[in-house]
Amino acid sequence: MTTIIAFILMFGLLVFIHEWGHMIFAKRAGMLVREFAIGFGPKVLSFTRNETLYTIRLIPAGGYVRVAGEDPEIIELKPGHHIGLEFNQAGKVDKIIVNNKSKHPNARVIEVERVDLDHQLIIEGYEIDEESELLRFDVDEKAFFIMDEKETQIAPYNRQFASKTPGQRAMQLFAGPMMNFILAIVIFIILGLIQGVPVDEARMGKILPNTPAEEAGLQPNDEVIQIEEQSISTWEEFTSVVRDNPGQEIDLMIVRDGQEEAITLIPNEKESVDQKGESITIGQIGVYQATEKSVLGTLKNGFIQTYDITKLVLTNLMMLITGQVSIDMLSGPVGIYDATDQVVQTGFMNLLLWTAMLSVNLGIVNLVPLPALDGGRLLFVAIEAIRGKPVPPEKEGVFHFVGFALLMLLMIVVTWNDIQRLFL
Fold it and tell me: 418 lies in a domain?
């Protein structure tokens, strides 16, 4: 149960912050945000605020922000339709009743002759059962359609996604992944404030019991300055030598309380997996890196950690694209849940670290120029900026539809691999 709650909260936070970025920048650009949803499928909870419907849906497999103009409008009025009109105090149409007009006795029923709810915001038509001239009604820019007793706000062209500049649209699409990177930075800063920031030098932190480090007599704050006649100045250099010498005796020169001292130890052998997915044996001695607390160092470390993880994810992604890493190495929701279960057992701080790493992954994956992802849509905005006119909507729609189908197929394959790994 702890793992389930942790997974839901973690996944919900990642999705929420991503979609919140999309929504905030859409509203800043003047777009009408119709819905902000966490999850897919049937609604579990919903409320409306500031023109936007906020929903939590049954299937926790992502989320979305629905902006006017990104998809074809559900309601379209055509000549010959009979509709009811209700008016506000300014005399403008504020409700357009599409059906069930009998439930609105005060509505003025007309037969539509011409409608322009994009630019002119007018409705022209004739009153029913009367010999009347053509009537023209001005429509309020925040008027509502009422269909099956459900209200949907109209979207004038200046409130639609396509009406905005390429820069505004690109920013709205990029904002989701950007917020994932910002979330990772914030989490790393919080971890730094609580736990401290790793030091650059090869200085010992916590020594684990019953490990080669303890048996050799290493103590917290010991600093390694030399290994086998090789000068050591950073923690990365130190751990690299240890990893490369499993089961091999290595001689260390350390500094303890200002005095140099020689220590010999033999790293344990541990099975691991390299970036190509191949099994390897590495050395471990059972020691944590020393940390220190400083505000400036903590802020700097938040950006450095996010950058390092971004670089690692991009490297692995390129290896996947070039075939150096098998698709079997990918994990979907099932694999992430299993990994989360293992992380939860190691403590809350490691769960925060895992959340930051997943946030970076989510940001990068969404920026990959694949159909139906933010990166794929950014690609079309870039093409429009270069050629000076947009790609025809029907062609872009086919591209995203086919791409989405392929992504779903990939998700099925990855999930199947995750399930198989659980039972191997």
Answer: yes
241 and 348 assigned to the same domain: no
Q: Look up the domain containing 140 and give its range.
A: 81-154
What pTM was computed for the model? 0.81
Q: Output the CA–CA distances (angstroms, integers) from residue 200 to 190, 220, 290, in the order listed.
A: 19, 15, 9
Q: What is the pLDDT of residues 346-370, one digit of tens each?
A: 889 999 999 999 999 999 999 988 8
> In this structure, how many other beta carbons lie within 10 angstroms of the beta carbon of residue 261?
12
CATH number of the CATH domain containing 263: 2.30.42.10
Query: Quick one: 89 exposed, middle or buried, by C-beta within 10 A (0-12, 13-18, 19+)?
Result: exposed
Q: Is residue 49 part of a domain?
A: no
Compute the average pLDDT of residues 64-68: 93
Per-residue pLDDT of 90-122, as tens digits, reads 999 999 999 888 888 889 999 999 999 999 999
- Total tally of structural domains belonging to the chain: 3
- Active centre residues (catalytic): 19
| CA–centroid distance for 27 within its chain | 19
Tell me if 17 is assigned to some domain: no
Q: Which domain-ending residue is among 154, 174, 190?
A: 154
d(C-alpha 385, C-alpha 388), whole Å: 5
Determine the pLDDT at residue 318. 84
For residues 46-82, one letter each, b for 16 or more C-beta atoms within 10 angstroms of the residue's C-beta and e for the rest, the string is eeeeeebbbbebeebebbbbbbbbbeeeeeebeeeee
Nearest alpha carbon to residue 112 among 91, 84, 143, 90: 84
